[in-house]
Amino acid sequence: MIKFDNVTKIFPDGTVALDNISFEIKKGEFICVVGKSGAGKTTLVHLILGLELATSGNVYFEDVKLNDADPLKIQEIRRKIGCIHQDYKLLPKKTVYENVAYIMQVEGKDNAEIEKEVPRVLDVIGLKDKVNNFPSELSGGEKQRLAIARALVNHPEIIIADEPTGNLDPYNSYEVISLLQKINQAGRTVILATHDREIINKLGKRVITIEKGEILRDEQAGRFII
Amino acid sequence: MYEFVNSHKTRNSLMFHMFTNFKRILGFAFNDFNRNKGISIAAVFVLTITILLVTSLFFFHGITSYLTTQIQNKIDITAYFVDDTSEADILGVKDEILKMSSSIKNIEYISKDQALAFFNEKHQDNPILAKALQEVGGNPFLPSLNITTNGDPVQYASIADVLQTSDFSKLINKVDFSQKKDTIEKIYSITKNINIFGLILGIILILIAISVVFSTIKLVIENSRDEISTMKTVGASDWFIRGPFVMQGIIYGIIAFLICIFISAVSAYLLASKIQIMLPGFNIFSYFLTNWWIFVLIQLGFGIGVGVISAMIVVKRHLEV
């Protein structure tokens, strides 16, 4: 489904974020990408979303070479991915309801479907009492949950979660990871980028360990070893 | 048949999708406008000032056009014919001159009798002149053609030249161009300079105004830079992102236009009598009413145009994600 083929990413200031990495993610997999802060996890996520382009090598999404894809194709791919960003990337001038509805509007869903699905997702995620609040009026945990609701609402083929538990207490972290597991059990592909040792060790899923932009290990049922 | 029905359905669904998107973009624009009242009011204010500036330039143009027309209408050259030239010959010359140049505004034939009548009417309260005329005896005036052009001294010079050198020059006693030449040149130079000065001032002011509006709208959109980047990240199309900002530009333009047209009408109405004292015969409110559609076009076009173009340019910069 996603393939990194000898991918190197060097930023204009000379920083080597990823150095000649290759791996493949199959449909329905749950894959953990681990590494210290600055190891290159977020860059990897950005390359899948087409937010960054590889300096050399190729990133493929369902056989589409992202380096050569036209903007419309990239938009289409982004709509297939539900992404929970480290910094939430919420729309600050839209309410909780509108933030989630926006994703469905982008997809061109009709109003009846939006009016049915958004309250349902917000209910599941525990934000049904905050529908008219703006992101600035939410706590860190609530923002995180809103970001998750937004990533899930369109039932995307892939969920990418970049440090989704970074601002959560252990109980909420457990809830989020359980939710991701359920999504994966429903047949969706999940990519979890984190540096939370406990979570990774409990999950027992495939782990790709990155350090200084290079893949140190790629193990099925791996553990957090850095 | 099946294919036709299918393509018809696809077209209908596409139209419905476009209409839904348009409604959503409009909704986003109104929401953003409402939720950022401070910034929205600032943008409308700046746009209003700019449109008022452009409008005042158009009023200024109206006043200077009226002034220059009035002045130019007062300058003319006169060709005096020899005493016994027949009316038919003079009218023939008139037709010939009319054919010479499209810049000739008017040629008036004044017969000997009319010239005498004008003189008597003009000097009816002056017994000395009346007595002098009696002593001369008969009608000493010559028939003439009074020619008015667009005010360009070159035009007057070329007409005077033709009158004195062409076939019909033998019919002409005198052309008074040389006496009026300096005055014509001076007036023409003044009116020409006023127009050039007005145009340069207008262009400079409009450029300044556009850059102020552009900076304000840039400020409004810069405020949403992260939001635009997030929208791109979730796969929104460029138009779905750009649309609300462009629509906000249109809303700013329409509100600014409504304010400006109201201010223009009221100011023209209130200032009409005062301006008429300085410029007799020129009613600024009538000028506004006669040209109302130009005012609407300028204000609406400028307001929406600058609003939309600024929004398009600024958003485009942030869409390169």
Provide a descriptive summary of the structure in words.
The complex is a heterodimer of chains A (226) and B (321). With 226 residues, chain A is α/β, with parallel strands linked by helices. Chain A has a single domain (2-219), classed as 3-Layer(aba) Sandwich (Rossmann fold), CATH 3.40.50.300. Helices cover 36% and strands 26% of the residues of chain A. Chain A is built from seven helices and ten strands. Chain A has helices at 41-49, 71-80, 96-107, 111-125, 140-152, 170-185, 197-203, and strands at residues 2-10, 16-25, 30-34, 56-61, 64-65, 81-84, 158-162, 189-194, 206-211, 214-219. In chain A, the strands form two sheets. A six-stranded mixed beta sheet of chain A has the order 6-7-8-3-9-10, with helices on both faces. Chain A has a four-stranded antiparallel beta sheet with strand order 2-1-4-5, covered by helices on one side. In chain A, helix 3 (96-107) crosses helix 4 (111-125), helix 3 (96-107) runs parallel beside helix 5 (140-152) and helix 4 (111-125) crosses helix 5. The model of chain A has no long low-confidence stretch (mean pLDDT 90). Chain B has eleven helices and four strands. The two termini of chain B are 44 Å apart. Classes of the chains: A alpha/beta (226), B alpha+beta (321). The interface between A and B is medium-sized, with 28 and 23 residues.
